[in-house]
From TrEMBL:
Family membership: Belongs to the cornifelin family.
Native source organism of the sequence: Periophthalmus magnuspinnatus
InterPro entries, sorted: PLAC_motif_containing
Pfam families: PLAC8
Name the record gives this protein: Plac8 onzin related protein 6
Superkingdom of this protein's organism: Eukaryota
Amino acid sequence: MAQVLPADCRVEEEWSTALLDCFEDSATCCYGFWCGPCLSCTVSGRMKECYCLPLCDYCNPAILASCCVGVPICIPPAAFGLRVALRNRYKIKGSLLNDICVSWCCAPCSWCQMHRELKLRNMKPNVINIQNVVNMQPAPVMHQAVPMGMGPMGPMPMGPI
């Protein structure tokens, strides 16, 4: 007897890399460290959202104040929202509480993890189709040189007739 699963039943996967796996992709880590806003805008664009969406996190006065204090005052909305969206799109295990904690405590690490996830998920194998192409040119046509005064029917008269 076949078992029928409900339509909303889904197989959940783990994140491809852990939150602090910076050395899995050092290029992403450097990108996030030296230009965090650029990395977050790249993640937003790859998720087909507005590229400028993460700038709300960097321009929020409460978040800017938390940088001075050292303790986050509020949850960065773009980091949290895009993390939840990415987790739902790829059916990654987790919870909203976990997303809140990660976005609140370590938003830069969250952006790096999301960037690594998108890079790994969007890698498509390169299919190379090699065909043997033979460029055939027609054989050169050899024309017989016709001596002067010779026509196709024999010798041609040379003077007035």
